[in-house]
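Re: Re: ligand-bound prediction request (bumping)

Still looking for help on this. To restate: I need the protein modeled with farnesyl diphosphate bound, output as structure tokens. Inputs repeated here so nobody has to scroll up.
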Amino acid sequence: MSALQLDRIPHHVAVIMDGNGRWAEARGMSRSEGHRAGVDAVRKVVRAADALGIEWLTLYAFSSENWNRPKDEVATLMQLPEEYFEEELPEAIERGTRILSIGNHDRLPPGTRRTLEKAIERTQDGPKMRLVFALSYGGRGEIVEAARRLLRDHEQGRIDPESLDEKTFAAYLDEPDMPDVDLLIRTGGESRISNFLLWKAAYAEILISDRLWPDFERKDLEQAICDYQKRERRYGLTSAQVRSGSK
Ligand code: FPP
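Reply:
Sorry for the wait, this slipped through. Here it is.
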């Protein structure tokens, strides 16, 4: 691995944590056990991201489509945030991590929702890394919800359609302060976006890792960042324009 440049760490890293099921299957374990192993990987990667100085880390923990999975798997996936925050909240507070969440929280079981709200509230003054859990989240749903909020504001005369631009619209998304994604990592080897952060990942560099999520660790995150640092981000410009600093 070439050297990681600590002065060029991506501001916002987002992760599609895929491969828990395959990891479990390969060991003759249940899918739920795979998800539990996935939580251990979350712990490691969160600590590594914090140590590397990543400002925003967004983790796809449960998609709006995941509600269609078998009941017992959904029940485990809904229990995991409770167990995770129970254990990790004191350390998050100590580290100054601010926990946030995006997604349709109305669908979450009351216990999961309460734990999440407590974690968000107790860390709200955290000055360091923003750790965002996408829970019951879908990118299209987020955009539709933003449009709904916008229409309500329009009805109240608070927004002039002529003044609407990308920046104004983005302020209606679930977490208005969230910057664009710089690096989007998907583990488990498949090349799909799966309805994740459709708006914020518009210019993300995408890195597919063959590693199954429970096996993903600090060195894999560092490797992904190294690969990112070798890429040329062009935002629609030519290479020559990027090199001459037109952007
Ligand atoms: C996809 O793998 C993964 C999920 C649907 C859930 C991801 C959740 C975690 C890693 C734990 C979240 C932790 C907290 C603290 C909220 P898959 O089951 O589709 O894997 P497969 O493609 O191998 O079947």
